[in-house]
Amino acid sequence: MSPSADPSRAIPPGNPEAVRDLFERIAPAYDRLNDLLSLGLHRIWKRQAIAWLAPQPGQRLIDLCCGTGDLALVIAEKVRPGGLVLGLDAAETPLRQARSRAARAPWLPLEFQLGDALDTQLGDGWADGAVMAYGLRNLQDPALGLQELRRLLRAGGRAVVLDFNRPEDPQGLTARFQRLYLRQLVVPLARKAGLEAQYAYLEDSLARFPTGVQQEQLALAAGFTHAHHQPLAGGQMGMLQLVA
């Protein structure tokens, strides 16, 4: 697939309405495609993120850009008793799936709300900890997203941001492998599900996403006292570890 033929041009990265519509469309196939496209490895990366977050019983945590709620459900098991996990997302269709999942485990302290990760309407220091998986890259302004994330956390609270990694060298082996993976595996498989444009968008969204070093700098500028970006999967993914 040549860049000139890339159907993702119809989905401008960072445009809130376009991104919301994208996730409304892909929600029914999202979890199945994630398993297929990552060979199930996304579950391992999420467990690594949770391990670093180290949620404790009684804590109040927020899952920003929570999607279909798979991460929120795992975290909710760890804050019992007395805790709460609030999942927030801008798209209603994935939230319906998240609520359906939560209804099958009514003992879990879970809530899901429609909301904006750049303006959550929650109070300062509301959360003991926070997670954002595959959301920061899709925000209109990732720097503002990190500022809102910091505002939400109490002093000393932890946050972890999991997402694709944008390699430092765009012509290096890691970046070239990433483009090959997206163009030759992700897009063709998504095409079979009728979601070619929605998954071709990944490459465009990465082109504007801050690198790991830039994410660390943005997080420190937002007021975090600690920011460390850890590459995963040979540099294809990244985990930004934060302390307020």
How would you summarize the topology of this molecule?
Layout: H1 16-38, H2 41-53, E1 60-64, H3 70-78, E2 84-89, H4 92-103, E3 110-114, E4 127-133, H5 142-152, E5 153-164, H6 173-192, H7 196-207, H8 212-221, E6 226-232, E7 237-243
Parallel strand pairs: 1-2, 1-4, 2-3, 4-5
Antiparallel strand pairs: 5-7, 6-7
Helix pairs in contact: 1-4, 5-8, 6-7
What is the compact description of this entry?
With 244 residues, the chain is of the alpha/beta class. The chain has a single domain, classed as Vaccinia Virus protein VP39 (Rossmann fold, 3-Layer(aba) Sandwich). The protein is built from eight helices and seven strands, in the order H-H-E-H-E-H-E-E-H-E-H-H-H-E-E.
Descriptive report:
The protein is α/β, with parallel strands linked by helices and 244 residues long. The chain has eight helices and seven strands. Helix 5 crosses helix 8. It has one domain: Vaccinia Virus protein VP39 (Rossmann fold, 3-Layer(aba) Sandwich), CATH 3.40.50. Strands 3-2-1-4-5-7-6 form a seven-stranded mixed β-sheet, sandwiched between helices. Helices cover 45% and strands 20% of the residues. It is globular.
